[in-house]
Amino acid sequence: MDRIKQNAFTKSLWVYHLACSPCNNCDIEILDALTPRFDVERFGIQLVGSPRHADVLLVTGMVNKKVLDRLIRTYAETPKPCLVVAVGSCAISGNMFADSYNFAGPLDKHIPVDVYIEGCPPKPEAIILGIVKGIKKIRGEE
Amino acid sequence: MKSKELEKIIKKKFPDLNLVLYRKRRWYMDVPRERLREVADFLFNEIGCRFSTASGVDTPRGFEILYHFSYDEIGLVVSPRVLIPKDDPWTFSLTPIAPCFEWIEREIHELLGIDFEGLRCKEHLLLAEEIPFDYNPLRRDHG
Amino acid sequence: MNFGMHIFYFVVFPGFIFTFIMGLLFNWIDRKLSARVQWRVGPPFFQPLWDFLKLLAKDTYVPEDAPKFIYLISPLLALSGVVIFTTLLGVSNMFPLEGFLGDLIVALYFLSFFPVWLIIAGSSSSNPLSGVGVSREMALYFAYELPFLLGIFTVILKSGGELRIGNLLLYQWKNGSFLYSWSGFLAFVVVLFSMQAKLGLVPFDIGEAEQEIMTGSYAEFSGPVLGVWRLAKFSLFYGVVLFIVMLFWSGIRYPWDVFKVLGILVVMVLLRQTNPRLRIDQALKFFWIWMLILGIIALLLAVRGY
């Protein structure tokens, strides 16, 4: 039974793009990964419009004090089980904004993160590799 | 109208405000804060410039706010410049002329701490709501 | 027909289980064809089944201010309306002589379950974006319902006033499909566009615009409840295509008539892939001016006998 659940979850991941004040470069690369050139719909990955339909939260951008409350509420809204992916160096560590007056801490200080995708911005291939690693982590391999 | 004509009109209307033709398409004017509304009203309503944005700077002489009005017919930007003393940081708001000045004035108000008289909504636009009003990150003596 | 056979027809074929399977199949054909049109590969065959199973495995969060009973019962009622609709159509196709007077009207009634319960569910979601989706969906419903009914009247007129689906089929088997006549063809075009709007497919998916209003009425549903909504929507796709084939193209009589169903499906998917989304005022103008004129012309041609 668990095996079927795991299989179903990893074969159909619905992605929601959650942007906490990024510079939009990571957003453009995420959009590129969803275009026909890379075609992630073969693996069942679809972009959805509401966090309530999402299985994967792709978080981009630096977490600042204003968006912190909304970020936590959106994470709470997403039905579990859910995979949180931090895309880009700003979400992981703050990049060049780490000692800014508005910085509220790296992403894993506020919500549990499963996959870290580095880069400024990461290439679409790197984003897909990150999702694959997330899938392998759910299935318990490696 | 061409730029020579515009120059004559501005110099005729405001002879005591010094109009500097810094580059061919970039003009500056020094305006005391009492006459700011008059100048902005003239540029916005009579000449028909488009309000582009405003920049607030913390300089050793005081706070400087530049309003950038773009005259799209010839690609010209006219920037009236207001100098505000540091111990008396307030100026007149331009929102009675048009609503488009509201957001940039809110931003300057919360980041530089300059009070705009006549601005109705003074809530935080970019900073988080729970931050107090005397926290002005873009001042040089902050932090 | 005894009671056991009735249960069999309702639950297994052509009822619930068959509609479920056909709904998933139609969703796969839709996505694969869309992918091919966009030069992509597209999802594998069992993808819609994996989507449904995954949704069953997730949590359902009911919003705090939502009336819980209505929120949870609305997808079930929508699904039941669709299943009754497809069962009625399937049984009428298999046994054309055994319908009851007015079963076309009953079928139309159950066809309207899905949009109405979608509107109710969107209103009960306590989300302002769902409210926007609901108002758009209601406006669209008023728009397409009138030309749709004109198309149905044309069919009824052409067959000489028959209100049984079985008798409409028999008329077509004797005298040729309605699609091959002038008024029938115009009525077919009107009904096709109306059904495209009922299903919420582009260019009329203004009620569930993903990018603008976070999928509108579906925004607050999650987990198994969302699974039931999607199942109802795909089953309605199957039911509507079957309805159009039965009403205009002589239904399913020989095994190769399956290609008629696939043909209508391909037309609807290609319409979806080659058009942008219309604004609500453009959609209203389209239905109330152009489709209404076409419907009235079809009706007049049917009266004259063409």
How would you summarize what this structure contains?
Chain A is α/β, with parallel strands linked by helices and 142 residues long. Chain A has helices at 2-11, 25-33, 65-77, 89-93, 124-139; strands at residues 14-19, 46-47, 56-60, 83-87, 115-117.
Tell me about the biggest sheet of chain B? 5 strands, mixed
> Which sequence of strands runs across the widest sheet of chain B?
1-2-5-4-3
CATH architecture of chain A: 3-Layer(aba) Sandwich
Q: State the low-pLDDT regions of chain A, or none.
A: none
Instruction: Tell me the number of helical segments of chain B per DSSP (H or I, 4 or more residues long).
Output: 3
Examine the secondary-structure arrangement and name the CATH architecture of the domain at 3-87 in chain B. 2-Layer Sandwich
Largest Cβ-defined interface: A-C, 22 and 31 residues
CATH class of chain A, anyone?
A: Alpha Beta
Strand order of the largest sheet of chain A: 2-1-3-4-5
Residues in β-strands, percent of chain A: 5-15%
Q: What is the alpha-carbon Rg of chain A in Å?
A: 15 Å
Approximate shape of chain B: elongated
- The averaged pLDDT of chain A comes out at 89
Q: Indicate the CATH topology of the domain at 3-87 in chain B.
A: Beta Polymerase, domain 2
Distance between the termini of chain B: 48 Å
Low-confidence residue ranges of chain B: none
Strand element count of chain B: 7
Write the layout of secondary structure elements.
The complex is a heterotrimer of chains A (142), B (143) and C (306).
Chain A: H1 2-11, E1 14-19, H2 25-33, E2 46-47, E3 56-60, H3 65-77, E4 83-87, H4 89-93, E5 115-117, H5 124-139
Parallel strand pairs in A: 1-2, 1-3, 3-4, 4-5
Helix pairs in contact in A: 2-5
Chain B: H1 3-13, E1 19-23, E2 26-31, H2 36-47, E3 50-59, E4 62-71, E5 76-84, E6 90-92, H3 102-112, E7 115-117
Parallel strand pairs in B: 2-5, 6-7
Antiparallel strand pairs in B: 1-2, 3-4, 4-5
Chain C: H1 3-11, H2 16-37, H3 47-56, H4 68-94, H5 103-111, H6 113-123, H7 128-158, H8 165-175, H9 182-198, H10 210-213, H11 224-248, H12 258-273, H13 280-304
